[in-house]
Amino acid sequence: MNSRERILAAINHESVDRIPADIWATSEVWTKLRNHFGKNTDIIAELHIDTMAAVGPDYIGPPLPEMAAGESIDYWGIRRKKVAHTGGAYDEQFFYPLGDAESIEDLDSYQWPSADWFDYSTMRDKAKEARKTRAVICGYMAPFYYHNLLRGLEQSLMDPLVDPDLTHAILGRISNFFYAHHRRMFETCEGLIDASQVTDDLGSQTGPLISMELYREFYAPHHKRFIDLCHEFGIKVFHHDDGSCRPFLPLLVEMGIDILNPIQWTCPGMNMRELKSEFGNKVCFHGAVENQKILPFGTPDEVRAEVRHCIDALASDGTGYILAPCHNLQVNTPVENIIAMYDEAWKYGKLS
Questions:
Q1: Hey, what domains does the chain have and what are their CATH numbers?
Q2: Which tens digit of pLDDT belongs to each residue from 221-269?
Q3: Which of 69, 86, 194, 339 could disulfide-pair with 135, CB 3.0 to 4.6 Å?
Q4: Residues sharing a CB contact under 8 Å with residue 147, sequence separation 6 or more, in sequence order
Q5: How far apart are CA 101 and CA 97, in angstroms?
Q6: Exposure string (b/e) for 160-172, b if CB count within 10 Å is 16 or more?
């Protein structure tokens, strides 16, 4: 099997020659890997990683404002600045475009993104080329997360409770853009896209960020609309949900998600064997290798044991699992542990 065939077989719960592997990592980690292997080494091939190829359109919308050194702005008007940490830096948000909105009328003065701001014409050729060897992923639809980004986390969590009408209006406008934008991408690349993200971070380290009641009323209808859009084009739905998101999973699976990431199994309700038993016939699992303690601070042998732990739990039937870290590998993760993770996945995950 090549990487594309292996990834798609796992998603479709079909037989695989070995458990496929994917990688998410910060830019600092990629620098460490290039320094270790040499700049001319194909790191993906060296580590036997399958991964997916992402395609998207080019932005041709209104020119973005000039920003101060170390600061950036995107087409939503969200502003970020680089904040240094040990070994690197993160782009941290410091401005929330709708943070001061108090009424539906206030939303009219905000410049909402438009699907017309993008050139989709080059996407089809890129997708054709990518799918020769890779599964192709395209798009990102996250109404809860963008509610957080536009309003600020605290205000967005209060919005449904203190102003339901304003909340519905904000989410409706976010989602209408996502829907129009992704329909254009899917139409342009019809038959060439394998997966798309309908995603959100509904869980924290200890439990859900919002109640099921609020999720059902404000966010689930938008997720269902996006899931149906993906399935209309034969596209699998990749759902990312950090932390303890267990209460939402039955509804998400019922609505039609196909791939669940990142399986943060140390959080309440996220036992891997239980998830496999309950949802494994409908969902392919992606991620799971623990990266808060084991990957950054464990030994290579402990990393290898964790890889076996994840494969035994999430690929107990020989398929339906794509091994990856349960979020981006961070700069404090030793290269030796990264190598151990993918080497053990390649050796222990061989099924034929």
A1: 3-60+99-348 (3.20.20.210)
A2: 999 999 999 999 999 999 999 999 999 999 999 999 999 999 999 999 9
A3: 194
A4: 156, 159, 167, 170, 171, 174
A5: 9
A6: beebeebbbbbbe
- Provide the token pair at 6: 């292996």
Structure tokens at 34: 């290039």
Tens-place pLDDT, residues 46-71: 999 999 999 999 999 999 999 999 99
User: What is the mean predicted confidence (pLDDT) over 298-304?
Assistant: 98
Q: Which two tokens stand for residue 199?
A: 């995603």
- pLDDT tens digits for range 144-162: 999 999 999 999 999 999 9
Find, among 62, 192, 72, the residue nearest to 116 by Cα: 62
Half-sphere exposure at residue 29, Cβ-oriented, CA atoms within 13 angstroms: 22
Q: 352 pLDDT exceeds 80?
A: no
pTM across the whole model? 0.97
Q: Which of 290, 292, 349 is nearest to 321 (CA)?
A: 349
Q: In what order do the strands lie in the sheet with 71-73?
A: 71-73, 79-85, 88-95
